Amino acid sequence: MTVSRPSGRASDQLRTISIERHYTRHAEGSVLVAFGDTRVLCTASIEDRMPLWLRGKGEGWVTAEYGMLPRATATRTQREATRGSQGGRTMEIQRLIGRSLRACVDRQALGERVVTLDCDVIQADGGTRTAAITGAYVALVDAVNSLMKRENLRRNPIIGAVAAVSVGVYQGMPVLDLDYAEDAHCDTDMNVVMNDGGGIIEVQGTAEGHAFRRSEMDAMLDLAEKGITELVGLQRAALELG
Amino acid sequence: MTVSRPSGRASDQLRTISIERHYTRHAEGSVLVAFGDTRVLCTASIEDRMPLWLRGKGEGWVTAEYGMLPRATATRTQREATRGSQGGRTMEIQRLIGRSLRACVDRQALGERVVTLDCDVIQADGGTRTAAITGAYVALVDAVNSLMKRENLRRNPIIGAVAAVSVGVYQGMPVLDLDYAEDAHCDTDMNVVMNDGGGIIEVQGTAEGHAFRRSEMDAMLDLAEKGITELVGLQRAALELG
Amino acid sequence: MTVSRPSGRASDQLRTISIERHYTRHAEGSVLVAFGDTRVLCTASIEDRMPLWLRGKGEGWVTAEYGMLPRATATRTQREATRGSQGGRTMEIQRLIGRSLRACVDRQALGERVVTLDCDVIQADGGTRTAAITGAYVALVDAVNSLMKRENLRRNPIIGAVAAVSVGVYQGMPVLDLDYAEDAHCDTDMNVVMNDGGGIIEVQGTAEGHAFRRSEMDAMLDLAEKGITELVGLQRAALELG
Amino acid sequence: MTVSRPSGRASDQLRTISIERHYTRHAEGSVLVAFGDTRVLCTASIEDRMPLWLRGKGEGWVTAEYGMLPRATATRTQREATRGSQGGRTMEIQRLIGRSLRACVDRQALGERVVTLDCDVIQADGGTRTAAITGAYVALVDAVNSLMKRENLRRNPIIGAVAAVSVGVYQGMPVLDLDYAEDAHCDTDMNVVMNDGGGIIEVQGTAEGHAFRRSEMDAMLDLAEKGITELVGLQRAALELG
Amino acid sequence: MTVSRPSGRASDQLRTISIERHYTRHAEGSVLVAFGDTRVLCTASIEDRMPLWLRGKGEGWVTAEYGMLPRATATRTQREATRGSQGGRTMEIQRLIGRSLRACVDRQALGERVVTLDCDVIQADGGTRTAAITGAYVALVDAVNSLMKRENLRRNPIIGAVAAVSVGVYQGMPVLDLDYAEDAHCDTDMNVVMNDGGGIIEVQGTAEGHAFRRSEMDAMLDLAEKGITELVGLQRAALELG
Amino acid sequence: MTVSRPSGRASDQLRTISIERHYTRHAEGSVLVAFGDTRVLCTASIEDRMPLWLRGKGEGWVTAEYGMLPRATATRTQREATRGSQGGRTMEIQRLIGRSLRACVDRQALGERVVTLDCDVIQADGGTRTAAITGAYVALVDAVNSLMKRENLRRNPIIGAVAAVSVGVYQGMPVLDLDYAEDAHCDTDMNVVMNDGGGIIEVQGTAEGHAFRRSEMDAMLDLAEKGITELVGLQRAALELG
């Protein structure tokens, strides 16, 4: 395969990843995550008031909201607050983030609390949802750790790690962690969320140009597994800094 | 494997499928599709006015809207028109239906026209989105055929067939075409959209209980392929009735 | 009078009416009613939670919601859930349905429960609101009967029957039960709701082309009374099937 | 019949009616109408820009909007602008006002212009919609007259007069022009709109307590005819003041 | 200075002011205030139910809502209830009115009650917000007095008087109480709210054409102080009429 | 005066100010401004499509939108996109920012273009609106400079500089540039916008605790003038970095 990626990266190479904790001071967890030029601010907020439908069940909830600053994108995007509602893409992404993070939380151990993960894209260059999940995990751990210091929880509500990456088929070649230049021209695009034990939490694959084969799917899943293993390592390293 | 499904079906067995064309008289295509007790009315409407962002490009558009009658469900669901907006689940589903059907349409051949696929759930028992995609395909073909009779299109805009089915892991056993009783208690749920050439158009898998393994994913994809092959046969049979 | 109706019906002749009970399985009452080509699905849902303003008064409430599938009409109508609100026509109709059905319910006997009548038009050919009222009555009776089997009500909350029909003046001739071809060209259009004792519950008459005379009004009311007597008979026959 | 009305009026007696023209200075027509303690400000605005669906047809449009100041009522009503939408009652009323006034306008003669009748209730004591129609007619005539002075219309777009009144059955006695004390306790309530030739434009009757008989309906229509004849006289007298 | 104002008024002269109490009968306080051709209906409504965030604190709340009838203005303004939300200007004004009136209320003395000041502009000719504040004060006093007659309050919740006026620089000359003809062409526009002790409650100054100097600001504040002293005298005179 | 500020600053001392240009890469101007712990991202976007009401007038427009990330604040604030509308405070602030920046733009020189200034608060600690105005000015200059390089403008649309600061009376002492700890407990709060020639563009003063005297107002305006002179110097220094 002699196809070369616009960024010059190897097909199985992540962009430069950075995870900056304590980025803002009010939130219980606050992480600025960068996947190359994609930058997402992830904050975790813990509140005691539960939604009505969950009260009195002795377990907590984890939810997410996603937003994009109007000029995170190449041309200005209308502010959803001005439009009067969140669009379908936003809803889809924040539902995905919420489901993904709930997969690493023991809701009984959390107790009757809600953790809200706000993921706001400061600058977009492809892969904002996978960066958001990867960063939100670190913010969540920080928030839960501060909770455990404050309150007397019986056990740690965090059960394992969660990270996400996009994979795709670019000009016939399976590639890892697409940036915008690739994303806009690839045939197939798949977002994969996995835990640190190699278990799959979410797979969302879409054929953009033409339908894809099982063999392509297998190659993409292999790449995703490799990438997520690296991301979990980077999350761990960031969290060890204390 | 000695697990038995609530419905008594074999693990690779579809529910009883029916596809009733010309169900209502105004729409260019109108299909009542049933996957067991799940019943969805799919209509295809062809209109000449294009959305602004597509005008003058010489190609058409295919979009979908999804709705659920308030009492399609076991307990009454609030009407979205009363609530004032479509929920996240609705948006996610209608975006999926639209993307899936666009995969079998040559938009240049369609010309500057919009086809809207309205999928309204009359009765829900699991798998409404996969039934919707499968039925909407038939409505789309009927609508395009009526268009071809009326107008002088250069070539048929329909390129292949599209169908969808859900698969999951129920009590450890991979199963095809989940009904509500299974869906509510399964560990993993995956919706697969494929074309009649065995190409994958969409895969959306979610771990409900615990993360799933690559081997489970493979087994589910095998089941999906088998089911979709049968569904494409049923679509073809329905369309041959004329 | 030698005017002939587009349908060939006599001036005092209803369209073919059908009332199909148990049309869907989840609702306490579920009726598909057809007035010719007009088809409306009417479901009755009984819920225990009362609106705030009625709590603790020891009596129930009956309310209605009306919707139209986007392609129930000759050209596609925008979905109200997408538009973000119900239109004035929808509100007017659902308020009429609610008031009409409350006229046959003893709200003390019902107890602190809400019955919601959802009337969704599957196919429209004129007279959807009168078909909805006529069908919703049967769904309501089915729902209340199932409630009486389950709970120990002191007395039957249903007091009499309610049905509705449209009448109009078409090319100078008073006619019963207008279909769309007549409705679109008539001079005057009136919807009448009556009970089985011949009492008038609602009259809504509108001059479309020119103002109407008392004599025309009298002729229309006579036709309505005849039509409603027949409809009440058809409701009774449907309910006797058990 | 020895029933006495709360106001001491005879059963066929209108409240004190006043029609004050030129109440505010900006609108082309501006009328403060009072039916007893019910006071409604009716303004008529003429604009050249047509709604999209009517452009280029060579005819005009007449439409109405209705509002209620928050403290027009005995207890404060939430402002619809704050709530974010107009309620069903408001929509129903403004649709009625618009239809009623269109019945006295020759839309071809009006030319491509929109007349908007804004009817805002300053103080409510029953019968706000009938007062609004009666007052809006006078505002409409003033606005059209000012238009005719300014522009060279071929013929007067106003064809006849329109007025409205409520009638009801109060403690078994048919009565004219209900005030709130009667309206809140009457068995039947009917709004009637007629033209100056005695033709009926709208009839909207609702049984509040129990269904009503044809004989009651006839008595109410007689009262309405008498009341509207008086109202048309009062409109004419007001307009002659110049 | 030889500049003359469009109205012929002296630079420090208010328009003709009138304050008409008991303008409508339902509200606890109801005042029609006129600053020249600007006419605003101000009603004060007292309710016992507190907003959630204030319950149980033993103190009351004063809030305001502002509206403009569609044809209060020279050309018709769209109704905010139709548009679906209040505009930024409306929100800004009603927040200002609320803050201003809270400055003269002892919320502990008021007890757990909400006073809502509805200010609806019947006719606009500049200075609607300052007229609204000046009139709302009188409505508030009337409402609180009626409350004190009904309930046993320990002390009068009204602490001093509040009035407001606009000032500006018109063709280089500082002027008091701008009407629309001045407002539309002035260089600077400032709204000042003061109490009867000469204390400043709000100052909102905006350079329309070019930035203004401290000396201009001083001249405007002097005019405002003179005007507000007169307005407080007129409020007192109106309230003494009983 | 021996009152000491929570931060230990002198009464006429600004917080540490930083202005970081080119903070994100897509916008024509992108500035992260910090007033102590208050951090606001200001982007300037230039677009060619004008709002309808300004088309064909040969002049441009400058507008602003303001947002707050949910966890910019000590406790989580609901996202306005989720709520479905911008609140009154947001609207008030973005209107102020827009007016302030328009004061330094020659709209004829700009030509038919819209500049949108998006000011998003990343972290809040008092004074977000004055930081936003001060930062947005720098983003605006960067955007206009890039426009002048690209297009052949006849003259520079930027006419002077604009900056803003808050002043207040804290425990009786007039102070400059309030942080949250002061803002929450001060008696009076005033936002002042000035240009680099010492002209006043906006003054918005509010008595929080009790009304303020002219002498206090004078002292606050003196402080504001001093602070804005320093801010204009910092803007100039930042822009000279190139």
From TrEMBL, chains A, B, C, D, E, F:
Its EC number is 2.7.7.56. Phosphorolytic 3'-5' exoribonuclease that plays an important role in tRNA 3'-end maturation. Removes nucleotide residues following the 3'-CCA terminus of tRNAs; can also add nucleotides to the ends of RNA molecules by using nucleoside diphosphates as substrates, but this may not be physiologically important. Probably plays a role in initiation of 16S rRNA degradation (leading to ribosome degradation) during starvation. Belongs to the RNase PH family. Phosphate binds at R89, G127, T128, R129. This is Ribonuclease PH. Keywords: Nucleotidyltransferase, RNA-binding, rRNA processing, Transferase, tRNA processing, tRNA-binding. It comes from Dyella monticola. Pfam families: RNase_PH, RNase_PH_C. Residues 13-143, 161-227 form the Exoribonuclease phosphorolytic domain. PANTHER family: EXOSOME COMPLEX COMPONENT (PTHR11953), EXOSOME COMPLEX COMPONENT RRP41 (PTHR11953:SF0). GO terms for biological process: rRNA 3'-end processing; rRNA catabolic process; tRNA processing. Gene3D superfamilies: GHMP Kinase, N-terminal domain. GO terms for molecular function: 3'-5'-RNA exonuclease activity; tRNA binding; tRNA nucleotidyltransferase activity. Coiled coil: none annotated. It catalyses: tRNA(n+1) + phosphate = tRNA(n) + a ribonucleoside 5'-diphosphate. It comes from the Bacteria. InterPro entries: ExoRNase_PH_dom1, ExoRNase_PH_dom2, ExoRNase_PH_dom2_sf, PNPase/RNase_PH_dom_sf, Ribosomal_Su5_D2-typ_SF, RNase_PH, RNase_PH_bac-type, RNase_PH_CS. Homohexameric ring arranged as a trimer of dimers.
